[in-house]
Amino acid sequence: MKSLRKDDKINWSIKQQTLFFKTLGDLIYSGFSLKQSLNDIMIFFPKQSKICRIIQEKIEMGNTFCSGLEGLVNQDTYNQLFIAERFGFLSRSLKQIGSLKEKREEQRRKLVGVLLYPVMLLIMLGGLSIAMHFLWQPQMADLGIKATSTNRYNIWGLLGLSVTFVGICHETRRYSKLPILKQRQKLCKLPVIGSLFREYYAYYITFNLAILLKEGMNIKEVYFFLKNFKENTFLYEIGRELGNNLESGNDIHELIAKYDFFPSEISLFLQKGKMLSLVGEELFFFSEMIYKRLTLQINRLIEMVQPILFIIIAIIIVVTYLRMLTPIYSNLGGA
After folding, report:
1. Contacts of 280 (CB under 8 A, 6+ apart)
2. Which among 278, 281, 288, 272 has a CA at the least distance from the CA of 202?
3. pLDDT tens-digit readout, 247-305
4. For residue 39, with 0-12 CB atoms within 10 Å meaning exposed, 13-18 middle and 19 or more buried, which class applies?
5. 8 Å CB contact between 144 and 201
6. Which of 72, 74, 277, 331 is the most exposed place for a label (fewest CB within 10 A)?
């Protein structure tokens, strides 16, 4: 399948993607055909017309719905839609993707609102620090008060920032060289936000695995299916790891235990001995639970951001006062 040419690239914002996926999923779920749903979206939302025409042209040429989205959405989203369309779960997947993007947009707006006041305070504190450096310190120097302590704070502060910056650059470079599964594993182990990555990838894996199992695929057939995806994508690498695991004579439970982004509950579902289609339906339900859990965790984290920032601001204020008063008391003591 050919992706968009460089001169055909479309500026498709997250807000527009959310509206498109959610509306299209609702229309198809309500019984409208894909063709009619795309026509309706062009009427309801004229800004989406170009996207809809690209998809319609692909379909008329005998290609899939997903082929019209290649190059417009990230590879993980594309692969999820490809699986859903292949096995008749397109409307369900579209609604899930639309809902997830809608929640992300809501949380982004909420985070901006939460950050607004603390960021304004930080800007004011930055202005105060600049004023201290260019106005207060020269006045203290004119009065014969040495600012050695202040200079020491500045040196340690710059040293700390430099070490932090070098450390971040080093870790970013190391991360970019890792295989994709190890990258995901590293994200899942990050402090504070690592649990969010674990929940998202757990949702992504269980939702797609649910479709494949519901179609009656066994684990070996899942491997053969996943290895057809584009190389260096998340699902392809999972398939490759699954294949290596099978060739080594190990079972899937060892693979699940190896990575944090695999929910351990998958092993429990597979051990029940039920029909694969029933296991797939249970995984659908489980993926919904993970999605709700992910949303709650993100909301809780956003609620924690403002208090943490206020604590940081309080520490900065205390340090600023120390920078102002320490040289004065030091000189008084030495008088």
Report:
1. 209, 210, 211, 212, 213, 214, 215
2. 288
3. 888 878 888 989 999 998 888 888 776 778 888 889 989 998 998 899 899 888 888 88
4. middle
5. no
6. 74
C-alpha pair distances (Å), 231 with each of 84, 237, 239:
19, 7, 10
Neighbour-count burial of 114, counting CB atoms closer than 10 A to its CB (0-12 exposed, 13-18 middle, 19+ buried): middle
Q: What share of the chain is helix, strand, coil (3-state, %, to 5)?
A: 80, 0, 20
pTM (predicted TM-score): 0.78
b/e string for 8-18 if b means 16 or more Cβ within 10 A? eeeebeeebbb
Q: Residues 297-320: what's their mean pLDDT? A: 83
Cα dist from 79 to 83, 205, 226, 312, whole Å: 6, 11, 10, 41
Are 115 and 305 in contact, with CB atoms under 8 Å apart?
yes
Average pLDDT over residues 173-190: 90
Name the 3-class secondary structure at 73. strand
- Dist. CA 131–CA 152, nearest whole Å: 18
DSSP string, 165-218: HHHHHHHHHHHHHS-HHHHHHHHHTSTTTHHHHHHHHHHHHHHHHHHHHHTT--
CA distance 311 to 89: 47
- Length of the chain equals 335
